[in-house]
Amino acid sequence: MRDSKIKVACFGEVLWDIFPGDQKKIGGAPFNVAYHLFRMGVDANMISSVGNDGLGRDLLSKIKNWHIPTEHIQINHNYPTSTVIASIDENNDAHYDIVEGVAWDYIETTEADLSAISQMDALVFGTLATRNSQSRNTLFRLMEASHYNVLDINLREPYYDVKIIKEILHKTQLAKFNKAELRMMLDFLGKPYSNEKDSVRYLQDIFDMEEVIVSKGSKGALYAKGDHFYLYPTIPVEIKDTVGSGDSFLAGFLSKRLEKEATVHETMHQAVSLGAFITSQEGACPEYTFEEFTSFRDLHKVSVLPF
Question: What is the C-alpha to C-alpha distance for residues 170 and 183, in angstroms, rounded to an integer?
């Protein structure tokens, strides 16, 4: 593993995804990002909560076996460890039944977390963890302490509130949307959709937000930084499943974006490569080494597309 001084915290859900056949795998979008950041050599920390139960102990044990820090994962004595019932459709896309009233709905604000966040390079989070006021209030406190807030919007009906999303975006430096979420956000704002570039510029202006990512599935990914737009293609692979592909893309992106000397091309190459690499494997957090990833990345050169 590479040495790295990049430090990132991921806030929100960490859970067991229960797949057909009672197979369980660790999941939760923020944890998936943390896992892949760690694989990229980043000092990745997860701020979350698990129950004081067998599933919680199993989850912490698994994370520790990966050598990912667990000191910011709280143990809740009143609410259980989160489980999500997952199903895979005929297109290999995952669908989730997200149970409420679980430990990560009740993440407490701690002075230790606030102090740690102030020393980190980024705070990554989604909107799902804002469905309960306890975790939502903690997130807002952490965002105030953070220097660089990264929102992977991850809209899951009915677990979001448009008013809260707007509040978050006003405090966000980088936001990631997929194509559907971009259109939904414009609908929330009462703005007719015209094209991606105008839509992104509108969000940048409304929320005073310099950086936006739009993931476009098979058509690649768009990164906007100020007035500059960069479109990169996906890397064609044999798809095992798409679980966690967007999370790995974001982790790949941040692992380079937060390096002082990295170029946009290096950043986007890392992002689309890690997204493709994980899509070609089973599960959101497959076992792999940084060297295995870089071998894949270096075999797949990409060039910016006209946009």
Answer: 18
Contact 131, 104 (CB under 8 A): no
Q: Are 73 and 5 in contact (CB under 8 A)?
A: no
What type of residue is 198? D
Query: Three-state DSSP class for 70?
Result: coil
> To which residue do tokens 């089973």 refer?
282
Q: Which residues of 277-289 are buried (b: 16+ CB within 10 A; e: fewer)?
A: bbbbbebbbbeee
pTM of the model: 0.94
Q: Are 32 and 281 in contact (CB under 8 A)?
A: no
Cα pseudo-dihedral 301, 257, 129, 231, rounded to 10: -50
Q: Which of 158, 230, 220 is nearest to 200 (CA)?
A: 230
For residue 3, the model assigns a pLDDT of 45
